[in-house]
Each structure stands twice: as structure tokens, then as C-alpha cells.
Amino acid sequence: MHSIKNKKVIARVSNRMIMTDRIRNLFSVIAIILTSFMISVVFSIGISFSQNYSTYKLRAKGTLAEITLDHPTSNQHNAILGLDYIESVGLSIYAGSATIATEDGQTAEIAMTYFDENEWKEHYQPAISEIHGSYPMEEEEIMLSIKALEYLDIKEPQVGDCVTLNYKIAGQEFTKDFILTGWFRNFSITDIDGSAQVLVSEKFCNKYGLGMEDYGTLSISAPKGKIEATHIRLYNDISLSEEQKFLAIYDTTRSSSDVLIGSMAIIIMLALFIVLSGYLLIYNIMYISISKDIRFYGMLKTLGTTPKQIKSIVRRQLYLLAVVGIPVGLLAGAAVSFAIVPAVMKGMGGTSKNPIMPYDISFHPIIFIGTALFTLLTIAISIRKPAKLAGNVSPIDALRYTEGKERKKRIEKRGTKGNKIFRMAFRNVMRDRKKALVVFVSLFMGCITLLSINSFLGSIDLEKYLERYVPYNFAYSSYAPYSKDRFDMDFVEKIKSMDGVESVETMHAVYALVEFDEEVLEGVLKHDYDQHAAQGTTYENFVKSMYDLSRNEGFYSEQELSYGTWLLAVDDDYVEEYNKTNKNKINFSDFREGKSVLMAGSSGGYLDSMIGKTITIMKDEVSEIYDITIGGLIGSDLLSEAGFMSHLVGAPPVLVVSKDFMEKFSGGDYYINHIYINCSRNQEELLLEKLQQLNRTRLDTTFNFSSRLEEGEGFTSSIATWKVITNGISAILFMVGILNFINVMITGVDSRKRELAVMESIGMTKRQIGRMLSLEGLTYATVITGMLLTIGNIILWFISKNVNAVADYAVFEYPLTLLLLLSIVQYGICFLVPAIVYNTSSKEVLTDRLRTVVS
Amino acid sequence: MKILRAENLIKTYGEGESAVEALAGVSLEVEEGEFVAVVGTSGSGKSTLLHMLGGLDRPDSGKVYIRNQDILSFRDEDLTVYRRRNIGFIFQNYNLVPILNVYENITFPIELDGTKPDESFIDEIIHTLRLDKMSKRLPNTLSGGQQQRVAIARALSTKPAIVLADEPTGNLDSKTSMEVLMLMQTISRRFNQTTMMITHNTEIAQMADRIIRIEDGRII
After folding, report:
1. What is the mean pLDDT of each run of 10 residues along chain B (220 residues)?
2. How far apart are CA A402 and CA A854, in angstroms?
3. Which of A455, A603, A625, B115 is surrounded by the fewest CB atoms within 10 Å?
4. Does the predicted model carry a pTM greater than 0.90?
5. What domains sit in chain B, N to C, each tagged with a CATH number?
């Protein structure tokens, strides 16, 4: 067949047809609006979350850079600038500290820092917000963080304000009036207001002769996912002095990507669910509309309209409605997103003390395009079958249709009541099984989502959550060696002396040098070569570089990050817990003596071969040498603390030892990595305040402080937000079901207008007809209630069995009240709608209705 | 020249005891330009015959040739296209598209084909059928006779090989019926249009050049 230009006539027919069925149009547009609305809300939550989450991670880190080098020479600086495999290099110079008296009578020392343009623009700016003004250029100019403004009691800062600072450079004290050129908000895990910071100009550094070799740090950012490879290459390409080393901050929180993937999975599932329910609704509306117009399509076919052309007439009508529906849905979605997204962001963030996570809504074009596409996809799959029905209509059947051979229902006149009416109602419901099924499924889906979500979220118990996941009232963690200001026993004693403190537990760490023995360490070497080695590096070269590192004497003088690993000392109960779940049991006395240790890592890989190996460790080259045997692998599920500690690629991961051995090995010179505090319940709030005060006096802010009280608040609000969102979505699904039902009733009554008139003419009273229709509605409600009690209960049972797998602290609760409520609402609607529809449609005179030709 | 030829058409509806033989081996031929009437009582099989000849339905066996082309050998989609180009239908209940105006109804089959209507020809039909003043009106504003005239115009618009009319005056009063039939006769002569009309009314059948009788699915 030659290609023919018949688009115009198809367009004309569809455009005019669309005006003939107002109710169908209204329902279709509502269905399209609902679908695009829900999809756009879900998409904007998803995309905003993923964007905000990466901002959160960046802000928490404080810089875009991953690798640092202290005391660089300008030769090294230039050499690194010339490397093609790094993203950027920035220079910062430590320019002393300013001393400020804080409100509570204490003094705080604030670091004064200079950033070169690269460091400021490429590494620092992306991790801060609310930047006002510009970077200081002149010697007497400064820029402050909002926290520093707060310390200085500057409420309404203006560019050009005079700020007087007392500061120390290399032990010498100065006082000077500075001009404020700007301020910004930085972020800190411990304090909502960020940390205090003073930024100074290059001229300031020059004046005091603060050069990079003495006071500088180079910060290097590596291409995405290549931090470790870059780290290793830097060692090869840049010659360092004996004291220098490249420090790398790896993203050790593996769970962060899990959070993201998990959230994305939920969002995609929701989107598919919405597509499915949208499909049910649109399909139903179009199917009914086409069955109603079947004679018309048959006639078109008699006149020579091909099935293809008829299908495109049907499709075109729906797409025209989509042109109205999708934009409205998008706008409504955007409006609601403004309100909902920030709330959800807070909810997803988990805890309330998370100001670092922005609550921004992203109006990314992807949201609009994605929503439009998903909605169109829904429409396309919904219309397929109805269009086929219209396209395949036999012209003869369509013609017959007018010959009065319409199916008629026989009814008997006798009796004004009787069970006849009920039987008729049931037969009417089942007359079009497909239609009935769609109503059943969509109403059931709405109900069961509401029930499932509520029973699931209802099972999540705050108390149990806290018991399981926040076993201590307060916890400190500091990840040596990055923390400049270590926790010491004084600090621990200070806490111990506070009122209400019941117990304080600590976890200690120390760095141990490991003797390099290729054979003994083969499992570790192979594991790390597999996971972390740079591309193109052979195993032999990798092993050799480790050997060189271990022989590099310069490293021995400064132990941290030379060839070796962290020892983490824990109490016996961790070993007890370990022995409960593992085959390779550890002997307690061996563990206490340090003969037997645990290595952090998961089994199932090269690391398995390390079990039973004996390695040699020492604190430094002059101290005693110890031989320790690796008794087993301890996963992060038992000891999450180990997962957060850095480990040198090619050297063994964290080794878990007893406190006795730690004492012996380190001679008391260890880091306090974790402090866990328990207190009496009534003192919790008071103690929180005291600890927060204590935290403010610390120079270093790289430690992490958490409180069960705040976690609990955050958890409650996060559950509450989730409830609002998920209930909102399931309420919409429920509405879709009801809409489907109303549509079926309206079109059902409308297309049976004549049939109902015939019944009336032979003596069925209007009341009886109304009752019959209401009974039809009740049949729907009963079937769905039945489905809820059977299939629904199976699903709920399944949830009750699995709720613990998702949240191990959850206790399942049967949603009886909600089930009752849903049933009542459903019965009410199903009872009232049919009668109302009939009453409005039966206002015409009987003879007129009798004459109506069903078309 | 023979424009239509049917060979031994058989069609049975239903199965077993309730089976009804609608056509029991019908063969017929129609010459170009002929105006043929098929008469028969209700249930004689005349409508079924018309449906088979027009390609609206398929017989159980037998063949239909239009201009020597075996139309039943086409696939459905192609048959539809063939039908709209070569066969014009006129129905008892007019079957006008209610959402299109008179002119659009008339040109509908042509536009479905994607071709441009031959305007002078359409104008001539409209003029002959006295529809000039109502070409912009919608079908539901017209009387029955007017609607049937529009249906006739539509059937002619594609210059079909044959026009099949199924009780074209069934819904019209006798005066209007006569008018419509006169018009059909005129057109058949004027445009040399082959036309086959089925009716149960022998009086109306008299207007045709030839009358074919059908009873119990057989031509007698």
C-alpha cells in the first residue's frame, strides 16, 4: 500500500469525538492527572534525595579533596600541578589561631587559614553554603564562618565591618583590627552551626612569613572512584622528604551507597506501582467508553476505516486528554513537592541533628521529562487493549447491534421484595467480568497498601529500636589519627565525674608496625591487590611496593601509616558474641594474652586464608616484638567500629585485641577511639546539655558525638514523615479504586438506561431499581472485603513474618481498626454512589427514556 | 461487462440443530451500469447476501468477484481498503457519522484513503441530490429523507464499482421513499453506476432494471 495522507480526517474524527463524552473525558483527565501527579512527586523526592545526599556527604567531609600533603615544597607543588591524573590541587596555609571569649566564659581558639584560589573555589566552596561577600585579598581583610561570627557576637554582619581579633602566630600574640569581606556557613557533624573559622589573605601570610613548607598543606582531588589508585601513583611520582606522606580520606562508610540504592529501589517500586494503578484506571475508563461506542466504531469500519485508523482514532483521543492532564498533574506535583520534599528529606535523613543534609527540592528537567514519559507509557499500555477492541470490531456485529438484538434481562413481576433483586444485582456485577475484575483489583490494591504500610510502620517500635541500635545514652567516636585533639583520660575522667553518669566504657587503638612477610601475608596482599591496586600494576610490582614501604626506614620514625595496621582493643563480650556465631572459636585466655587476635573483614574471599597465620608486630623499632595468630575474621555486623578505621592498602586490616594486650603492647600510649556513656534516665537531658557544653571547648571537631535522646527524636519524626507520605500515596491508590468503581457505576447505569426504563415500565418501582443498584454496589464491597480477609490476611501474615528481617526490633501489630474503618468507608461509598447516580439519571420522563436508543 | 460475479455462496449461522442456512448456494452476475433489486421476505437471506457481496462478512464457501478480482482472498485490513475504494453502501438507518457535517460525511471515505476529493464531481452529486444548502449541517438536524440522500452521496463519492443498498427506504414514508428511489434511478443512469438494492417491497423493486428473488437462501 502506498503511504496515504489520512491524518487529517483521523484527527478530525478524534477531535470531534472527544467532545461527545464528557464524563469519560473528566474521568480520563482525572486519572491522567493522578498518575502524573503521583509520579512527579515520587520522582522529585527521588532525585532531590540523591542530590541532597551527595551534598550531605560532601559537607560532612568539609572539602572536595581526598588526599593531602603537609609541608610541601614549591617544587612538589608544581610537580603535582603538572600531573594529568588528578582533578585539582589547592594550597592552604595554617596562619595561627585567634582567641575568642565565648558566652559561657570559656575561651575558644579558632584556626586562621589561608586558601589559594584553587583550594577556595574547587575544594572548599562546594562544601559550604550561604557565602556572602568575597575572599579577602588585602592583609587586613578577613572572612569568617557563621560560627565564628556567633563567637564574636556579631548578629548582623556587613561587608566592611571592623572586627578586632587577638591572635597567636608561632607563640607570639597580636591584636589587630580587620575588615570583614564576607562570611559563610560551614558544617560540622557535632554542631548545627558548623565550626568557627577565620580566613585570611595571601598578603597576611606573606607579612608574617608563613610559607608553604612550614605551614602549608596541599589538598588534591582525584577522579571519581580512583582515590586509592591516585594515592599509590602519587607515591611513585612525587619524591617526598622523610617526614612527608600523602594522607588519603577514603569513603569508608560503605553504607552510604546502600542507603542511596535502597531509597532508589523503593522509589522505582513506587513508580511501577503507580503506573500499574494508573493503568487499571485508564484501561477501565477507556474499555467502558469503547464498549459504549462500539456501534460507532463498527460503522466507521463499514465505511472503510481500517483497524489501524480506528486504533489511532481511539489513541488520539486519549493523548489529547493527556495534553490537558499531564501538565496539570505536573503542576500539582510540583506544588505538593514544595511542601512534601523537605519533610521527606528530613525523614530520610534519619536523625533530626542533621542540618548538613539540605532539604532542597530539585526542579530538574528530568523530573518533568520522566513524569511525562512514565505517564505516556502508562497511557500507551492502558489504551492498547481498548484500541484493539475498537479496531477489531466486526462491521456486521456493529450493524446487528442496531437491530434491537440487545441482551435483555428477563425479570418477573411478582413480589416487590424477594431475593430476586439480590440475584439480579450479583448477575449484573458479574455481567462484565473484566470490568468487575478491574474494580476489584484496584480497590483491593488501595486497601491492601494502606493496611500493609500501616501495619509495617506501626510495628516499628521506638523503644526497641533504641535498645537495639543505640545501646548507650551517649557515644563519642574519634578516628585516629585524623583527630588532632585526641581524647585522653582527663577527658574521660571529666565525663565520669558528671552527675548522673552510671558507666563509661572506652575502646582503645594503637598503630602497630607489621613485619612484611610475603608468604604469611599472601591472603591480605591478594585481597587488596584485587580490590584496590591501580590498573596496570602487576601483582609482583604491588608486592614489591609493599616490601619497599616496609623497608623504608623513614617510615619507622613516624609510625602512623607506615607498613602496619591499627590494633583495636575491646572487652571480652565482643569475643563472646563472636564465638556464638562463628565456627573458628577463640580461646579466651589466648585472646587476653594477645596470642590470638581477630582480624576485621568478611569471610568468603582471600582473607579466609589468613586464619591461623602468625604475624609479627611491634610498636616501634625499639620496642618489644610480638607474634600474634589470627584466630578469625570479625565482620562489621559485630564490630562496626572496626569498619570506620582506615587501613593501609596492602597491609592487614584492623586487628582486634584485648585491653590487657593493648596495655602491654603500647605501654599505655594509645588513642581513645570510642567513649560510651550510660546514665540514669532522669538525668539524660541535663547530661546532654553538659556534654554539649564540654564539646564546645574542644579545638578539634572531627570527632562524632551522638545521643540516644536526639536519635530517638529524629527517629520518631522520620517515622512520622514516612507515615504521612506512604499513607498519602496509598490514600491516592484507594481513591483510584473508588474512582474506578464510580466510573463503572455511572457508565453502567447510563448504558442500561433503556433497560432500566424497560424494567420500570413493567412494574419495577424506582425504589426497587435503586435498591438493586445499591445491592450491586454492596456486592463490590463484599467481594473486596472478602479479598482483604483472605488474600489480604495472607499478605499481612507475610509482612508479620518478615517485618523482623527489615527491622529486627519491630513487633507486628494487626491493623484491625484500620481494616474496620476501610470496610465501613467502602460499604458506605458502594451503597450510596449507585443510588445517587440512578436518581440523577432517571429524572427524564419514562417514555423518553424508553425511546432512547442505546448508542 | 460483468462487474460483479458470485459463485455458489454458502453461509450457515449457528451449529447443530439450531443451525440456520442463511445462504444455500447463491450464484449471480451483475452487468456494469445495471440497477438490480433483490427481493425476499424477512429472513430469506437477502441481507446476508448483501454483506457477502460487500465484503462485510465472509461466506463458509463460495467466491465473490468484483471487476474479476476475488475480494475474499484479501486480508481484513486490505479488504477494508478495497471496500472503501470500490463499494458504496447505503443502509436503512443511514449510518451517518454524527460528529461530521454533511460535506465531511460525503467525503469521509475519500479522506480515509488520503486522497483529495474530486470537488467538481462531489459538487455534481450534491447538486443532483439537492443537498447544496445543507452541506454544513450536522446529520441530527436533517430529516430522514435528507439523511438518506447524504448517505447516497457518500456511497457515490468514491466512484465505486458497485453501490449496495440495504433497504434504503425502510425508515422513510412512502412519498420520501419514492423521491429517494427516483434519485437512485437517475444516478444509476446518469453516472452509469452499477447499483444493487435489497428490499422486501416488490413495489419498490419495480423501479430497478432487473429483479432477483431470494427465498430460504436460494435464488428463485
Report:
1. 92 82 91 92 86 88 92 86 88 82 88 83 88 89 90 90 90 85 87 91 88 91
2. 9
3. A625
4. no
5. 32-58+73-219 (3.40.50.300)
